[in-house]
Specification:
The structure is a homodimer. The first copy, chain A, has two domains: 64 residues, Tetracycline Repressor, domain 2 (Orthogonal Bundle); 115 residues, no CATH class. Chain A contains nine helices and no strands. In chain A, helix 5 packs across helix 9. In chain A, 68% of the residues lie in helices and 0% in strands. Chain A is mainly alpha-helical. Chain A is elongated and about 60 Å long. Chain A binds a DNA duplex through helix 1 and helix 3.
Chain lengths: 198, 198
DNA sequence: AAGATACTGGACGGCGTGTCCAGTATTGGT
DNA sequence: ACCAATACTGGACACGCCGTCCAGTATCTT
């Protein structure tokens, strides 16, 4: 077999396992899903699981990677370096999460907030990049870093809260509030009666 | 024996177990600490453990409760309802966490961000209470809620980042930046060269 | 077709959990 | 100081899940 190509069986099995994980993780806490559960759902032998992934966590990572990849294929015309009234990542993120809520509740780790490090880092990276635009030069790295963390934490918490809710609040609305809070702070965002952004 | 009083042996054992948990959890991930580890560290029979706590998680909760209690005993003159330039909870929180960093790294769940729900809720409550002061009446509950979550997430992420660091940044500094970010937003906080608050 | 490769399913040892119990301290009440 | 009540001990047990291994079978690629 040529080195780069992939056996149909392999692709099939991996896909099945990933699908199974997504399904189960939408039903219950990731931590409560056993390898056996996954295999049963995927209709794959348990020993087969281990020929593909060393453990459950690796399957999760692979699943996330795959998911991210398919996302980036969808939209690449995001970076228009706007005048800076908004983060460009958060809108699409909220919209995407909304489209497949059940899955994201699982992927992002339900009540326990066990967000996979990769996702956290990826989002952090996005935020940092956007914040660099505001910060004056790189002369205060600590300040940039703390702001990055601040926004990252806020973002995930808002996302969690929203996903745990009943889904009545539309993604644009959440994004708008999030952005306002991030840019203007609670002082402005809460005190002023605001009326729907620009 | 009188109904309310507590047998010395019980108090002793529970204290030992809690101390052991704190110590171990400072050394490694909470999830990686086994009941057996705790018992060995505490020098308590494993079966004894289960006569006091149904499982590891309950011990954690009890430990946290105890900790909180001892905290509230320490300082009760906090609520001066200031003019609203700051959250009153965060300063003491950063200061306290700083004083016993190793322990807090454990209690707040190291890299995994597994913050016990009780702590999260407690902090959320503080924040919500303080935010009510800014919000105009209770006519927009969603807005208040989203702001609460926003600040909560930001707070914990900043706290984590800071605890994971080398400890060179003093608590007052972190608190100052946190407050500025929360109240004025990243726009103001990052763009302006600021010089140390009032 | 045939050799390479992947899947199966069952067995194994290991570890951690939570329960139970008979035997042994320690305690608090009188 | 005694003694009944209560707590601690340590070892055994069944359970569930993990990760590994292997001989047998199915499926792919060339």
């Amino acid at each position: 077999m040529a080195a780069g190509s992939i056996d149909r069986r392999v692709a099939r099995t991996r896909s099945r396992l990933q699908q199974a994980l997504l399904k189960l993780t939408a039903e219950k806490e990731y931590g409560a899903v056993t390898v056996e559960d996954i295999c049963r759902e995927a209709d794959v032998g348990r020993s087969t699981f281990y020929t593909h992934y060393p453990d459950k966590e690796c399957l999760r990572k692979a699943t996330i990677d795959e998911h991210m990849k398919s996302l980036q294929a969808g939209g690449a015309e995001r970076h228009s370096m706007r005048d800076f009234e908004s983060f460009s990542f958060s809108g699409p993120a909220f919209a995407h999460a909304y489209a497949t809520r059940e899955m994201h509740r699982g992927l992002m780790g339900g009540a326990k907030r066990e967000i996979p490090q990769e996702i956290r880092d990826w989002v952090s990276g996005q935020i940092r990049r956007e914040l660099v635009g505001i910060a004056d030069g790189g002369k205060d790295r600590v300040r940039l870093e703390i702001a990055t963390r601040f926004v990252t934490g806020a973002f995930f918490e808002v996302m969690h809260w929203w996903l745990d809710g009943d889904g009545r609040l539309p993604p644009q609305e959440v994004d708008r509030m999030f952005q306002k809070l991030a840019f203007d702070g609670v002082g402005t965002a809460l005190a002023a009666r605001d009326d729907g952004g620009s």
